[in-house]
Specification:
seven-stranded parallel beta sheet; Rossmann fold; Alpha-Beta Plaits; 14 helices
Length: 436
Amino acid sequence: MTTEEVLEKLKIGALNDMQQAAVQVGANGRDLVLLSPTGSGKTLAFLLSVLHRLDAGYKGTQALVIVPSRELALQVTQVFRQMGTGFKVSCCYGGHPVRTELRSFEQPPVLLVGTPGRIAYHLEAGNFDESGIRTLVLDEFDKALELGFQEDMSYVIRMLRSLKQRILTSATAMEEIPAFAGMHDPEEVNFLDSEEAIPDLRLKKVSLPAAEQKPEALLQLICKIGTEPVLVFCNHRETVDRISGFLNKKGLVHDRFHGGMEQEARERALLKFRNGSIHILLTTDLAARGLDIPEVAHVIHYQLPHTRAAFLHRNGRTARMKSTGTAYLMIAAEEQYTFLSPDIETEDLKGTFALPPQSEWQTIYIGAGRKDKIGKVDIAGLLLKKGGLQKEEVGLIEVKDQVSYVAVKREKTAALLKALAGEKVRNKKTKIAIAK
């Protein structure tokens, strides 16, 4: 499959300069260190490099992608499926049923994507045959090191004895690559300081006499922003939960995303934010990198991180791929940050701003997915033919292994659920309801 065919499947006009350079090096089989900011398209770059090295005649697993988070594992898997290569891909991560992953190994995936701990577990148990793996990708390697995955990654790499190529990606430059990565005279593709990668980002600060005033100021700021997508960053899970409780009492519709939540709740929150059912997502640095969250117009630092690198990663969620964005910095008088410029523009919150209305979209849950041989076409057909919706009233459809979700116009959901009561999807009776 050619790069042009993949781009057509993805509805992308052309690769950017970073992607072109990375694919050229990767396709030649050289070890590659790919340095580029969050949101610049590294996932597609390394997946195309992997694709060009796959052998359609070999039936076992040929490539492994190790990522630092469950969400990133799911995202990489989804992008590869959207590429329409015809090669099987499987995804493994903590919190995902082991028996489901074992079943996927019965017909070995050509590409395996997973988190370090779960991949190490399967290797130690001998659950899949690693002897045919020629290509290894260490995605968001700097983040994986930061999270302490050195031991698991080192073990996995030692177990892969047939490797011919290593690809390492990072959103920050590293003084030294750890020896356990096993990079052999790698070629570096560095776009961290390229003009193409420089975001059109506007910084604004909200200055407060005391930190205790932050919740009310946050509410005021969100109301002033209105209905555009907003990511609110906090330093701790407890802060996310506390601020969420405050906003709930004020009647502001939003969702949460952090590592202390159940995996299903985390995935659902991201999905609803991605499809436009909610506009406000409170999160920790877990959402700062590697997630598929397009077109975030605004980032709010409810609490600023302790390092400049973390600050830049958070800001990388907006002003992506040549778009514009705004990052708001909520700073109390007692808070000091050495990495901030002293001349940041001040945001005026004087005045009265109404609560933003609920999104025009609402997410519908369907209790069947890819394992039931159900695809997007089946779901769209059900909603249009039997649900009575028009094409423009159906938004993003996402099909998971066991379930599916679709955004529909909020004003149509009640009538839709009534029309679909008792209906079957591919001759299977299944639950259809509003996603909570």
